[in-house]
UniProtKB/TrEMBL annotation, chains A, B, C, D:
GO terms for molecular function: dGTPase activity. Pfam families: HD, HD_assoc_2. It comes from Ginsengibacter hankyongi. Signal peptide: none annotated. SUPFAM superfamilies: HD-domain/PDEase-like. This is HD domain-containing protein. CDD domains: HDc.
């Protein structure tokens, strides 16, 4: 009998693994570690269901890759067994380089090294262990493989990563409006001159996809309470460094208190794989009792969900407001102006619905013409939406909760 | 024990009826007749699941009305028990005046009288039977009741009619992308100066709602095959009149071959209520064997799903194309030029995503300001979408199928 | 590009047709006629969503057959391309012989000929038209094909017919408790000595399947109001015969007033295919005004949903009760005792959860042993459930509604 | 405007909190701590979606309590506003006393004190803080309140706790067959002589509920891999005690290495609330490098999902098999016979589908009679299912993985 494992997934029903190399990768400790990294960082403080993991998301993206390849092969595009396997592995491993609380702490815990770079380092390491079997997967991941559409399925405007996270995040948060017609989009995929495109009939599905993403950004990923908690997390790390607070776990301490250069990371990959959300949250729990008032206030805030207050604004926050809130914090906590900046701070965040400047979503019409989704007749997604929408925010202590 | 019936609904789970007058109306033959009128006319030829009825839709809209009123009362807006009952009845009966195949044959079978007018006539008749108990419901339906938001819940940009048909139609067609976040929209409803509005937090849900509607129009309601079948239906009625084809049912014959004026309809309401999709489809089945070639070709087309071919175009159909197709039909069927117009015909159809010229969707901001959904910051729904998008079509015999 | 059509299905998402012969069959008028036969006869009077058609169910069963075959091939069982096509066609056509209101009028409209026999006649006819291309499909349907498991997928304890109707009927009624884990059951299918079996891991899913079926029978198929309406339908046919009431449609009249022998049916197949739910309901609508009081009462009852009252009982209905109700009907309607039997009648209905006397559900254990589902350790489905559970009923006029 | 918060829940859509005291409790650090205790302990190693928390489950059970009370009030049963609030609080807090990995480590980390006892201690403590506002909730929880059905909704055969965990666990695992018709069961609830019962029409739903629970036990809660991982967890705790391994967190160390008596717990409640899954998993991660081979093997097993092998058997495990596996372990790991018992061990587990010896599920018939669900006519749940079904297991190192 053929090799075959099925995994229950509440989103897709069943995920089938029918390739031994794929199973070997899933079983690897580097991959299993993704069980301990939440997909959505602090979003669970607003959406209690949003506790799913990076491992689950990667498996889901792998499932969509299987579907997409099956569909494209069904339409007559040539994809060899080896290419199929490589594309599946590339998507399985695309997030392997994420650190604790992924995006929320990216570039904070390890400065100047993106998670994609670390993913690549880990893939290379696994490739060596597996005597070169990941070669083609790595090429696809790096966009060095001639059939460009395989890379675009891994990373691009219509990649299966994005599709899975939108579906999965809306599923687990319960924000049902974020649901996209992933199965229809996959059925509309096509290839033209080696590039991934969408058939004409899929235009409305793509519009809907972009609008769902827009909604998920503003309603979930950039939900003000979620943003506030994630900024508190960043400030906790920064403050812990300043006051030299020790984490319970040695591996975490390394990354917290040392600053590695990109080229040094490669020598600490095993250490890196020891650190996950559990270390960070355990540290925060212990720091809730830390003598440094700033650190303990922030940590208690996260642990007991007594968050700072946050206000969003369409325009930059007025200096006077910042001053006033800072004064109050200084008086209340008896801290210096410098210290108050951990509790009263401003920033900006933003998202763009679509832009035709980056990678395009191309529609392939029946007559052979190709148009960007923003240029089809009566486009919903038009130039007025190309700019990044910025929101400004200020966070400050919620005196009622203190 | 209180009066209480529950009805299973695949869309909402259970619909509860806990008011005897409401139950009396549901049990009335006029209402039960809606079981025999399909909600989506010929859409089932493309979407086999789309066989749900007007009765089911009305019950669904009633359910949403119950939810909406509960929500508004929960927010502290005053709605009396009598108003609540009246609003529920108004929505239950809003479609009671639909004839067979509803929109597809509206203004064809009965010229110059909209279904809303007939709905009103039937409500008045039921009101007389029920000794005036429907008075307030009728006022709400006609927008004569002071609390304007009650009418807006029955008929307006955000009415529960529209919400139910979008949800229900996407449910039964399986076009899952049409799904709207109806429960969230209902939770975002509010009232300001007697008008129905949406809270600021609901902006993205409303955008999504409009985009879902846009998608449903182009992908389902105006799907070219659906449109083609519905235009064939219209031509069947027209041709039957010309060749004086008799329907099997007497009541249907009346409306088919006589032409009533608006003021005459009132005297034929019982007859009107005898006619439904079953009479029309039975007639079509019998006419498939009618000696008139035109009529029989069209009727066989509907019965056996051998439809005319249809082509959509962004521009008006070229006269030469029409001539060419007409010639072919004339030769093939050995019919006159006039007759060929039943088989080869052009037309236009259209839909607009939103326009702020008609009724508005107003957003009530926390600071008390009110903005049209197309005027909020970074609106997805903007002026570029206000115009009606037109599509032109030509239908003609599919020679391969003949 | 390969041949490929996709059909939206609210139950499974998309149904893919990628075989031209299959598409030819779907396009055949015999098959298209199934659009006009409701899957669940009168159940829609209780469950307003239950208006789906036999065509939709057949497509669904076809979809599950595709899945089942893919799964079995994935497990290494040999199924040739021709066998695959034949099995798919056999399931597509398994219900083609159903008459109007299918089970509710089976053996009533055409006596002594089951719908399976008519299905076979129609298949033979189509086979002749299609120059023998349905040969193997017919063999599988008749269980004349050596690979017995292919027939068992079409008709047996675990066939895809049963799976689809349970899922689909629970979906459209909204009785969500009837939902079965069809995808898991399909993943647990296996073949042993040419027979279809279930892997050990699937035991609980099968138990659940049988319990869901049990629930669907008592809660839906044999729901007392549904049963009552269907018995009224039978009595309408019987009464129409007695009083020689004419239907509007000639084809229906043929079957109503003539009595064909099995061997005669073959010569009237085209006529048979002209008759569907639309003829019957149109006739009933016209008979609501029929001078025969009995007929008109029954027909009005169906049309306006003013049904007879029905009572279920665990024991046979007491003669005195029958007499009393009959007396009341005689007096009220001024009819004879014989006539009253159309309005006051008793009967029994029943269902068995499982019996190991008919075809078995066999479990294949990892160690190679085979056990009937009722004989595995700690079986939920045990001997105490083997008998047919009977319920007795009496129907009689509901005086409150008259 | 009234007090009103809505929380997105993927299972029920929205959970509404419209009572300030309820919100105060939800905001309490004791309650927020439940975010850090997984509902299903190690089940996530088999079902990657099963990472939902005790907090989420408690909120869900609270939601069902709101529905159940609304339904019962709708049926005319008297429930005062105070009772309603108290019942909601009782269910919110019913799991507050769970320690890390809840059931998996119950009676292991803290011997001889059930989580219910600790829940009660914590409620008393919160009651004192909130000046007695939880008095009635505590009475209901302890079954000291006269309206017994309120306690039965919190804890009993049909409590909302059980309903929520079955729905939620099947939702998050993706074992869709575990889904129960909770909304129908709630609609069938009734009260008779102060006791919670089910209306006659609900019999099949209850059968389905018991079968779903049966399936969830064997397929999920007692899934052999889940059980194995949870037994490894227990052995980790035991071994850590023997070798005096220190956890990173002080609070956890207290409970790990000290043994509190029941009466002492009360003085350590705040400490108890400091310990959660994060401490245990962080400790395990650190112990994966512990010099004690046994401890490190077990810990690595959990962290990297390289679990012991487990075999289930219907009969007690043969001593020879145990000896053989033990020998192998002794040789491979070079450990003593005593030590080998952490890696090679046997046990039994079990579940019963229903028993009428414990609390009953009573059906209230229309004629006023009451029957246990196992005694209704043709009961699916009958005496043959009353006993506890036992399964025996042996766990031992998987030599292939080492």
């Amino acid at each position: 009998m053929a090799y075959r494992k099925i995994i229950n997934d509440p989103v897709y029903g069943f995920i089938t693994v029918d390739d031994e190399l794929v199973y070997t990768i899933i079983s690897h400790p580097y991959y299993q570690r993704l069980r301990r990294i939440h997909q959505m960082a602090m979003a669970q403080l607003v959406y209690p269901g949003a506790v799913h993991t990076r491992l689950h998301h990667s498996l889901g993206a792998y499932h969509l890759m299987c579907n997409a390849i099956k569909e494209l092969k069904g339409k007559g595009f040539s994809i060899s067994a080896e290419e199929e396997q490589a594309a599946k592995i590339a998507i399985l491993l695309h997030d392997i380089g994420h650190g604790p609380y992924s995006h929320a702490l990216e570039q904070v815990l390890i400065k100047n090294v993106s998670h994609e770079k670390i993913s690549l380092m880990l893939m290379e390491k696994m490739n060596a262990e597996l005597s070169g079997k990941l070669e083609m997967a790595i090429d696809i991941f790096k966009d060095d493989y001639p059939k460009k559409f395989l890379h675009q399925l891994v990373s691009g405007q219509l990649d299966v990563d994005r599709m899975d996270y939108l579906i999965r995040d809306s599923f687990f948060t319960g924000v049902s409006e974020g649901v996209i017609g992933y199965d229809r989009i996959i059925k509309m995929l096509t290839v033209h001159d080696g590039e991934l495109m969408i058939e004409e009939k899929g235009i409305y599905s793509i519009e809907k996809f972009l609008v769902s993403r827009r909604l998920m950004y503003w309603q979930v990923y950039l939900h003000k309470t979620v943003l506030c908690a994630e900024k508190m997390l960043v400030n906790i790390i920064k403050r812990a460094r300043i006051v030299n607070a020790q984490a319970l776990s040695g591996a975490f301490n390394n990354f917290l208190h040392k600053e590695f250069k990109e080229e040094e990371i490669e020598n600490h990959l095993d250490d890196f794989c020891m650190v996950d959300d559990y270390d960070v949250l355990s540290a925060i729990k212990s720091w809730a009792l830390h003598p440094d008032k700033i650190l303990s206030v922030l940590c208690k805030g996260i642990i007991n969900r007594r968050l700072l207050k946050i206000k969003y604004s369409g325009t930059i926050i007025d200096d006077n407001v910042v001053k006033e809130k800072t004064e109050l914090a200084i008086q209340y906590f008896k801290i210096s102006n410098d210290e108050a900046r951990y509790l009263v701070f401003t920033g900006e965040t933003g998202n763009k619905t679509y832009s035709n400047k980056d990678e395009h979503i191309n529609i392939l019409f029946k007559d052979g013409t190709i148009k960007d989704i923003s240029e089809v007749d009566n486009a919903l997604i038009n130039q007025t939406l190309f700019g990044t929408v910025k929101k400004f925010y200020i966070c400050f202590p919620n005196m009622e909760l203190l």
